[in-house]
Amino acid sequence: MNTDQPADVRLERVSVEATLELRQRVLRPHLTPGELVFPHDREPDTAHVVALLADGTVVGTASVLHEGSPWGAPGWRLRGMATDERVRDQGIGSRLLSATIDHVRGQGGGLLWCNARVRAVPFYRRAGLETRGEPWEEPLIGSHIVMWRLV
Ligand SMILES: CC(C)(COP(=O)(O)OP(=O)(O)OC[C@H]1O[C@@H](n2cnc3c(N)ncnc32)[C@H](O)[C@@H]1OP(=O)(O)O)[C@@H](O)C(=O)NCCC(=O)NCCS
Question: Could you tell me the pLDDT band of residue 2, with boundaries at 50, 70 and 90?
């Protein structure tokens, strides 16, 4: 993988299976890929989007699932947002996030929310999400805070 130049990627909607290896490696290395299937991952209105190199290597992934917010509002949950560390800071994560927003808009729009890692708060803020409530510590993963926006 050439890391000297921006990675040339294409985005594609895929089944959850295509996301699992990168989800596991970047987000939950203490679990197995099979343990990285989330509730609602296989619902028909769930969207999984990956960023692919020309050779088909998955270097980014994001998913959006129909799931109510922690405060009980109907909405869509963003999950499994991950970019391979070798191709970060090239806008791939932002493109994936935009694709999930497009999906929610295509379903009529609504509330988009996520449990954001505190380190990723500036990334989500740039996409128009804001924090809600107080951060908490997720064992083995780190500090999280809820973020949301209307799309
Ligand atoms: C968050 C993440 C998906 C962003 O992917 P990306 O392809 O680098 O996204 P972009 O290139 O569009 O944006 C990069 C920006 O996000 C910042 N960033 C956000 N969260 C970050 C994190 N956890 N680690 C490192 N950088 C992060 C980068 O510093 C960069 O900011 P800058 O543009 O001001 O320099 C990627 O950093 C990642 O996979 N991090 C580890 C897993 C993670 O935290 N996922 C989010 C779970 S809620």
Answer: very low
Domains annotated on the chain, with CATH:
10-150 (3.40.630.30)
> Over the chain, what is the mean pLDDT?
96
- CA atoms of 150 and 143, how far apart (whole Å): 24
Count Cβ neighbours within 10 Å for each residue of 46-61 and write b for 16 or more, e otherwise. Answer: bbbbbbbbeeeebbbb
| Of 67, 76, 130, 122, nearest in space to 103 by CA | 76
The residue whose CA is least distant from atom 29 of ligand 1 is 89
- Ligand 1 centroid to Cα of residue 109, in Å, is 25
Distance 40 CA to ligand 1 centre (A): 25
